[in-house]
Amino acid sequence: MAQFRNFRMVNYVVYGRGSFNQLDDILSPQRKGDAPMIFFVDEFFRDNQAFLSRIPLRGKDKVVIIDVEHEPKTSGVDKLRDELKAEFGEVSGIIGIGGGSVMDTAKAVALMMTNPGSSVDYQGWDLVKVPGVYKAGIPTIAGTGAEVSRTCVLTGPTRKLGMNSDFTTFDQIVLDPELCKTVPDNQRFYTAMDCFIHCVESLNGTYLNAFSQSYGEKAQVLCEEVFLDKDQWDDECDEKLVMASYAGGMSIAYSQVGVAHAVSYGLAYVLGTKHGIGNCIVFDKLEEYYPEGVEKFKRMVEKHKIEIPQGITKGLTEEQFESMISVSLGMKPLWENALGKDWEKIMTREKLRALYERL
Ligand code: NAD
Ligand code: ZN
């Protein structure tokens, strides 16, 4: 392996309130004959005609409403790919408009339009061999950093793991803070804390370098400005949070996440706990690993009167605990980033079991 990571980034970024209106111009040069653009849209916008009518449909273009009750699954991705192939043969591109769930679905389906087999075959690192079709991401909720990352996280038959590859990154992203206006307070907090936790984990990790630090520090400050310094949510908060998500994503692109993510993956796999809230549930108990970050987190929770669920692992079977522990310990780079090369001596199965029991 090369000594330095050579990172593929998003090709084009447009930022600004109202920039969504430029979508038609942005997509025009990407259209291939009469092959349609497919717009994956978060189910929140299902009945929002005012918003749907702003999507620049041409020719055979289609809007597909994406159900986000559960996080994306390999089976769902394969099914969407099969349906699009059956209906259109080829498409010009896939545009994901929504949160991490919809953006990840868009990335995965765009890749599976050209890569053979099932998305299960590509869960891992650098398994995707050919570029997918054109893809663009348009976040409508801020925090995951999925708009900039080189992965799309999928739950498959045996694991929750992304399709990490140079081909996974979006060709274009549209960052329009206006689109985030309608996110409910609790959800906004959980997803934003994904960003805050990315920063804390990156900044306190052994993989840290000046590249990651520069983005991580800025993203963390932006989160603190909106959740600790401000007394009322306003447009400027959405603008800052969209940029925090972007910078937080850039920070982990060149480092790694840590304990909260490793533990929360276990919860997601066994209990289906969603990423944002799962990270909050875990991070709330990580004072031993991230004392300063957890202290700030608790202040934000209190200020915004957010409820962090407690006791979610009560009554789980031995088998369920064992499965959570195995999934979590399987995230080796995360643990190594958090605890160093000797992490296996520090985070034993017993110690992790005790942590899961506190959640
Ligand atoms: P999400 O996409 O699941 O959306 C959360 C909720 O917010 C949904 O109910 C959705 O309908 C609603 N919503 C979205 N936009 C809205 C708007 N403008 N107004 C009102 N409601 C709105 O949540 P998320 O936290 O953005 O994403 C979580 C997913 O992202 C997980 O599947 C996780 O695995 C993935 N993820 C991916 C990466 C990556 O690098 N690819 C990184 C972190 C997380
Ligand atoms: Zn995350």
Helix-strand layout with pairing:
Blueprint lengths: L11 E4 L7 H5 L9 E6 L6 H4 L9 E5 L7 H15 L4 E6 L1 H13 L11 E2 L8 E6 L13 E3 L4 E5 L7 E4 L9 H19 L6 H20 L5 H19 L5 H13 L3 H9 L7 H13 L14 H12 L2 H8 L3 H4 L2 H10 L1
Parallel strand pairs: 1-9, 2-3, 2-4, 4-6, 5-8, 6-9
Antiparallel strand pairs: 7-8
The structure holds nicotinamide-adenine-dinucleotide and zinc ion.
Protein name: 3-deoxy-alpha-D-manno-octulosonate 8-oxidase
Keywords: Oxidoreductase
Organism: Filimonas lacunae
Q: Can you tag this structure with a few keywords?
A:
Dehydroquinate synthase-like, alpha domain, six-stranded parallel sheet, binds zinc ion, three-stranded mixed sheet, globular, alpha/beta, Rossmann fold, binds nicotinamide-adenine-dinucleotide, 14 helices, 359 residues, 9 strands, single chain
The tally of domains stands at 2
Number of helices: 14
> Low-confidence runs (pLDDT<50, min 5 residues)?
none
Rg:
20 Å
* Topology pattern, helix = H, strand = E: EHEHEHEHEEEEEHHHHHHHHHH
Structural class computed from helices and strand pairing:
alpha/beta
CATH superfamily label of the largest domain: Dehydroquinate synthase-like - alpha domain
Bound ligands, each once = nicotinamide-adenine-dinucleotide, zinc ion
Q: Which overall shape is indicated by the principal axes computed on the Cα atoms?
A: globular
CATH topology of the largest domain: Dehydroquinate synthase-like, alpha domain
Number of strands: 9
Determine the N-to-C terminus distance.
Answer: 38 Å
- CATH architectural grouping of the largest domain: Up-down Bundle
Largest sheet: 6 strands, parallel
Return the CATH class of the largest domain.
Mainly Alpha
User: Helicity level, as a percent range?
Assistant: 40-55%
Strand content: 5-15%
Strand order of the largest sheet: 1-9-6-4-2-3
Mean pLDDT: 97
Pfam family, one: Fe-ADH
Domain Alcohol dehydrogenase iron-type/glycerol dehydrogenase GldA: 13-177
Domain Fe-containing alcohol dehydrogenase-like C-terminal: 190-297
GO molecular function, one term: metal ion binding
